[in-house]
Amino acid sequence: MAEYNRVSECVGLITLRNPPVNALSAAVRQGIVDTVQRALSDPNVKSVVICGQNGIFCGGADIKEFGSNMTGPPLIPMIHAIESANKPVVAAIEGSALGGGLELALGCHYRIAHSKARLGLPEVSLGLLPAAGGSQRLPRLIGVPAALNLITTGRHVTAAEALQLGIVDQVTDHNTVAAAVKFALSVAGRSLDPRRISTHPCPQQPDLDALFEEVMQKVRQSARGAIAPIACVQAVRAAATLPYAQGMERERELMATLFTSGQARALQYCFFAERAVGRWRMPSGARWDTSKPRPVHKAAVIGLGTMGRGITVALAQTGLSVIAVETQEKQLMEAKQAISGMLERGAKRRGVAPALDGVIYSQNIQAVADVDLVIEAVFEDIALKTKVFQQLSAVCKPGTLLCTNTSALDVDQLASETPNPELVVGMHFFAPAHVMKLLEVVYGPRSSPQAVATAMQLGKKMGKASVAVGNCRGFVGNRMLKPYIEEAFFLLEEGATPELVDQALEEFGFPMGVFRMSDLSGLDVGWRVRKGDGLVEPGTASGRSARIRQGRRYSPLGDLLCEEGHFGQKTGRGWYQYDKPGSRVARFDPWLHSFLGAYRAQHGLVARRIDHQEVLERCLYALINEGFHILDDGIAAGPEDIDVIYVSGYGWPRHRGGPMFYANMVGLAKVLERLEHYQQLHPEVPHLQPSSLLRRLVASGSPPIHKWGEAIKKLHSQL
Ligand code: 3H9
């Protein structure tokens, strides 16, 4: 786990060996302790180099060990032993030095990095803080403001930035280990006192209190209830104000609190869930590791509205050639201008040249004849999309993958209109498509595993959290959103206000409550869908509208607002009012409140007091309940798929792990009991009827979330 060699006669070379990222498992820590001791006790060794195998220094502490009984030598004394060594120890950093990996390097006397290396203390994103001395050494090395920035955001810095900040001593474009060995030879015998970071005071900083106050305020605002960023600030404050030993004690205390918090468990679950969804599987048995993606060199986008423009940018930014098709000349010109602007702004942010030449614009669908993959993003109309798919089938070369960006239509139906349904999948992007992380890759019963593999690989290339899901109304994300929104409407009928519902959800950690979000995306979007479903009754504003439709409770509140022309931010009126159309600052709308009062009076509804707990339970448990239906139907392969969708696409607070993880934390029996309670009170609301899978999981002893897959398989085999 740590290999020892003597090189250049007098340099002890320690190589960490723990693929894939040389995480500091118990065995690696033991290996480092043993090899460092060996190097220090060998009189022929004048200096030491520590590196990692396979081009990566170290990805930090072994996250898989967290939560189990930790064995092996602890990190802190191990790093202290290196720092207090009487021979220079040089870290040779290739690939990544992250978390405990960078803390190990900070314990070394010198750091040499390859120009492509990335360094950082990302513990905050796992609900932790750099607790192997990182929160105390980094501010001493680079100053308090820079250390606060790195530690509270967890961002990775390039080798060039690390050099500028003073984290590394040298950057090389060549063989890093060779450069480190050469460097180690050159510093052998020099005094090491100035190189022991823990012995330095933090660089002086004027107005320390004001700085910490400002940063704390900023962090509290952006943390949305996450506790780790706040603990990170407290730990750096300890570095700035206390002697090293006391600062370390503070670091330990803060870490102990974080370590046992549900938030750390949730964030670490997210880390592994994001990787697990890449190992997709379909109900047919097809899987990620047995399905080879097709190469995609050239792609096309059909329809250059908001979604099509974003998708074109996302594709072009991966370096693909893109044919962007829009039949209307005026719209094509507008789209060209908008896409070029987005590419230029994106390139400026990333410090690269914009891929303007990568996009070819055309009014003619014939232009896509030789592409490998097409993404259709025309208006959500099944007849129009069917026509486009038929044209594409006639125009494209054999084997071209046909993808639809529909968010609401039936992918199977579209596939059935083409001669090769196996080549059809959904690629459901979220607006703005070049920014939002989530991509649902929707397969139908006839989609080939190769088509799914290709779309998943393309999603990864675009930097998306790509999740393969089965085809159903709303797929996973929007299907679960429906009961969540409906419960929010019902709460308004019963006496809640948009402000109360939004506040409860925002305190839970959503960036926006359901009504503010609805104002942002436009009330007319849902209105159109409900009209399509035959739920909207014309002229409801003039008379008493029915609250039971198609055999279930229905709230026409959203329809009534739309009839008034209140579409949200774009019209300046929605669930809130805005200074003018397009404004973003939501204000209390007295009209809306009297409208709600009149509506309740008309329907004989007596407003009652509703608290935050009821808002959360009804909105979130209804959403979670739908998640259990989705798992039972096999639309999502596992709870991780649902959770990644919600965290990366729907604003579910990451430190709460995702809806299914949250249900697991709350306890399945409790979720079931509350759903039963609300179902008794509202028998006309089917989505409060607990899913049979939830009942069966509770009956089988509420297994922990990592055992749900196994439990579901067993429960299905018993049916
Ligand atoms: C810490 O250090 C705490 C200390 O301050 C104090 C303690 C007292 N452990 O991401 P990839 C696995 S906390 C265990 O796909 P890439 C990962 O699950 C740690 N496993 O590769 C995956 O497994 P699988 C702070 C880990 O090349 C495989 O490695 N460190 C760890 O795209 C490949 O991962 C971090 O937060 C780990 N530390 O990216 C860094 N890291 O194949 C976390 C990875 O079974 N890691 N795995 O799915 C990363 O950010 C990226 O993995 C890295 C490589 C950039 C290193």
UniProtKB/TrEMBL annotation:
It is found in: Peroxisome. Pathway: Lipid metabolism; fatty acid beta-oxidation. Its EC number is 1.1.1.35, 4.2.1.17, 5.3.3.8. Residues 298-471 form the 3-hydroxyacyl-CoA dehydrogenase NAD binding domain. One of its GO terms (biological process) is fatty acid beta-oxidation. The keyword NAD applies. Residues 474-578, 615-701 form the 3-hydroxyacyl-CoA dehydrogenase C-terminal domain. One of its GO terms (molecular function) is enoyl-CoA hydratase activity. Its main location: other. It catalyses: (3S)-hydroxyhexanoyl-CoA = (2E)-hexenoyl-CoA + H2O; a (3S)-3-hydroxyacyl-CoA + NAD(+) = a 3-oxoacyl-CoA + NADH + H(+); (3S)-hydroxydecanoyl-CoA + NAD(+) = 3-oxodecanoyl-CoA + NADH + H(+); (3S)-hydroxyhexadecanedioyl-CoA + NAD(+) = 3-oxohexadecanedioyl-CoA + NADH + H(+). The keyword NAD applies. In the C-terminal section; belongs to the 3-hydroxyacyl-CoA dehydrogenase family. Monomer. This is Peroxisomal bifunctional enzyme. It comes from Champsocephalus gunnari (Mackerel icefish).
